[in-house]
Amino acid sequence: MAIKKRSASDRARDEAIEAFGNGAEPLLAQPIVGIDRNAPVRPKVTPELSDSRDKGNPRTMLLRFDEDRELVDLLAVVAKLEGRKKHPMALRALRIGLEQVRDSYE
Amino acid sequence: MIIVVGSEKGGVGKSTVVTNLAVELAKRGRRVAVVDGDRQRSTARWAVDREEAGHQPRIFVVEKLGSLHETLRELDEGYDVVLVDVAGKDSKEMRTAMTAAHQLLVLTQSSQFDLDTLVTVDKLIETARDFNPELRVRGALTRVSTNAFESESADAREYLSDYPSIEPLRTVLYERKAYRDVVGEGLGVVEWKNPKAAREIRGLVEELMG
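YS: structure for the whole thing
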């Protein structure tokens, strides 16, 4: 068996790879201590961030129509009336609908 | 060539893809080694079933947990293709395998939960490339509904395009019973009776090896 000689830079690289690997699952690797299970749960305050995506909001969303064929047909009809493709039409309709719901609470 | 099949979420079909790729590559005459780096041992169990059933070609499977970097480099010297199956989460096995691999195949289902994990994978790729700048990352959709009406696949592709570090593959793996049927038999779908599933795996091999 050939014996490999390891240089200092090889060792440093190996150690860096090991450290990168050890960075996985930090929550599982560390014991959970000092948690008072009876303490009241407070909502976490998230600092304001400039990019909406950074707040945990998705940039895209998959919609499943399931059995609601009526909604599918309605989307097709309205998209045709407005001369839009279905995706931009769905986004526009979603905005109009959400704004109406929000306004109903004001 | 070392190919790591990974994801940040379970249930996307990593072991299914690894075992099927292994069979197809071996049938093409490639010397294939499979490393099972997942504590669930799905691939290792499949290999035992295959061996007990006496199916040919035989697939060499080794189980290894912890750091995979050195193991993969050594196996790469003796085999044409080394396939790596890791757990569906951020793990030491996945990270260290990425530092040695030629390719990372990121599998994702076309669901919001799965696609949202790409943020984490993207960050891991960036760090892994500090060690392994040549790492090529490809993305494939798995378990896609065969219902032609659903546009999930197209939506998911659009989502994937937000991650330029991941090259989307043309091959899509659909949710087919054949993939489940062959597992217990220790077989791959290219040895089974569903030509559509077999075509998908052959397409995947062509793209990965091309």
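YS: worth flagging: The two ends of chain A are 78 Å apart (CA to CA).
IM: good catch. Also The interface with chain B takes residues 13-14, 16-18, 20-25, 58-62, 64 of chain A (CB under 8 Å).
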